[in-house]
Amino acid sequence: MPESRVHFEPLCRFITAAMERLGLPPADAAVVGALMAQAELQGSDGHGVIRLLPYARRIRAGGINLHPEIKVVQERPAMAVLDGDNGMGHLVMQRAAEMAVEKARTCGIGWVGARFSNHAGPASLYARMPMAHDMIGLYFAVGNANHLPPWGGLDMLLSTNPIAVAVPAGAEPPVVLDMATTVAAYGKVKAKAQRGEAMPIGWMIDRLGQPLTDPKRAEEGFLMPIGGYKGYGLSLIVGLLAGTLNGAAMGRDVIDFNHDDVTTTNTGQAVMAIDLSAFGDVADFKARVDRLVRDLRASERMPGVERIWLPGQQSHERRAANERDGIPLPAALLGQLQDFARETGLAPLETIATMKETT
Question: Could you tell me where in the chain the CATH 3.30.1370.60 domains are found?
Answer without folding.
Answer: 66-182+228-279
